[in-house]
Amino acid sequence: MSRTRLTTAALAAALLSIGAGPGAVSAAECIAPANPGGGWDFTCRSIGKIMYDIGAVEEPVQVTNMAGGGGGLAYSHVVNERSDDSELIVAASSATATRLAQNAYGGMTADQVRFVGAIGADPGVLVVAADSPYESLTDLLDAVKADPASVAFAGGSAVGGFDHLKVLMALDRVGFDDITSVKYIGVDGGADAVTQTVGGFTQAMTGDMSEIVGFLKAGDVRVIAVLTEERVPGFEDIPTAKEQGVDVVAVNWRGLYVPKDISDEDYQKWADALQKVADSDEWAEQMTANGLAPFTRVGSDFQNYVDQVVGEINQMSKDIGVIQ
Fold first, then answer.
1. Which CATH number describes the domain made up of 9-121+252-319?
2. For labelling, which of 223, 254, 301, 320 has a CA lying 20 to 30 Å from the CA of 265?
3. Exposed, middle or buried: residue 21 (CB in 10 Å: 0-12, 13-18, 19+)?
4. Closest Cα to residue 197, out of 185, 179, 209, 214?
């Protein structure tokens, strides 16, 4: 297999080609599209290490940090220079899908790579103050449907970001289509969004479980819905949206994509390796240590999920004027 030339000599020196025997995955490299210490870096380092430790790959996984453009630099690098490199995996998350849906990667599209799978997620949540009159997700959504001006949501992403879109997805599922009338206030992070809600400046907060655990334990908030397939371990008393008749799953998943032009056989090898990580005790420990919930979709099931999410976010983003 040939490797294409990298854009700088320094980067080329950092990327090592590691071989493996016939029929085995050789994890030459995992690109983390951000600086060390963030979620994408965690994905590469933890998943790559476990792949090697449990024998899912024959050689250690090299990790390369390639920050820039919210993941766009790495995406462009893979699409334009490494499109047939079967020894390459790239960390991705819900932010990757959102940015692709909103044309944030310079016109590149989600079908220019292949999504391998996700094996953990920070669950999306909808939260109200502890003394809120809204007892359930249905109560909250019904209030929006009756009078959109009466309910304001706070979230840690900008207008059109994933926190905003979680609310719009939930409302879409209950037949509310006037999404431009929904009041959303983007603030600087989940903690600020919770503070807005606890202080009565907004009626609800939209964010991730990791952002609200401290407030929940302090008794400041109630989580009226977690946006996962099943209840989250450790928080079994919090109902899912699906249990309440609102068929929405919105999580910040942790996963991988690979270059588009690798063979189906090589794609399946990566899917199999990722599934082995998902099934391992080592990954279960990593999820517990890092506040992640189970979210396992691998291979074509995950590719179909990403395609659906990208399409939905693209349309909603047009509807609210984030993109043309």
1. 3.40.190.150
2. 254
3. exposed
4. 185
- DSSP code at position 243: G
Query: Which residues, other chains included, contact 201 with Cβ-Cβ below 8 Å and sequence gap of 6+?
Result: 152, 154
pLDDT digits (tens, 9 = 90+) for 61-109: 999 999 999 999 999 999 999 999 999 999 999 999 999 999 999 999 9
Taking CA atoms, 54 is separated from 149, 217, 243, 275, 281, in Å, by: 53, 36, 36, 12, 10
Lowest mean pLDDT among 6-20, 97-111, 245-259: 6-20
CATH number, domain 123-244: 3.40.190.10
Q: What is the pLDDT of residues 32-57, one digit of tens each?
A: 999 998 889 999 999 999 999 999 99
The structure tokens listed for 189 are 């992070």
E-state strands within 210-302: 221-226, 251-259, 297-298
